[in-house]
Amino acid sequence: MTGGDARARTWSAPCQPKNFLRPCLLLLLDEQPDYGYELRDRLSHFSGTHWDAGTIYRVLNAMEDEGLVASRWEPSPSGPQRRRYEMTADGRAVLTHWARGLEEVRGLLIGFLERYERDRLAHIRAEAPSSNGVAAHPG
């Protein structure tokens, strides 16, 4: 293993936008009101990431304090009451704002990835042996 491989392994943090959970939860609540654990299950199918229930409830409570979501207790067919969350009008406005911001981020990501692939291809071509067995060098 090269030194570069070892360094890359230590930097294996997920590359998600900061606070990405918030717009994801609002989008799911825009589709339908739901309970915290159901939101967690839907979120894992949607984002491919497993989220801790405590984290989801903290974010939902914070968004409720901000007026982006509302909740109410509902009876459960089995067991204790459950809190059902739904998005507010302010939440819809914030979701629209975040979606526009994510559109800008998408453009930045596409530009980054295109440049990365172009640079990577140039490195591969430079390191590839030519027909005479010598690595080609950009000139």
Provide structural commentary.
The protein has 139 residues and is mainly alpha-helical. The protein has one domain (15-127): Arc Repressor Mutant, subunit A, CATH 1.10.10.10. Helices cover 60% and strands 10% of the residues. It has helices spanning 3-10, 21-31, 36-47, 53-65, 89-127, and strands at residues 34-35, 69-74, 82-87. A three-stranded antiparallel sheet has the order 1-3-2. A hairpin with a 7-residue loop joins strand 2 (69-74) and strand 3. Helix 2 (21-31) packs across helix 3 (36-47). The mean pLDDT is 85.
Give a quick rundown of the structure:
This protein is mainly alpha-helical and 139 residues long. Helix content is 60%, strand content 10%. The chain has a 3-stranded antiparallel sheet.
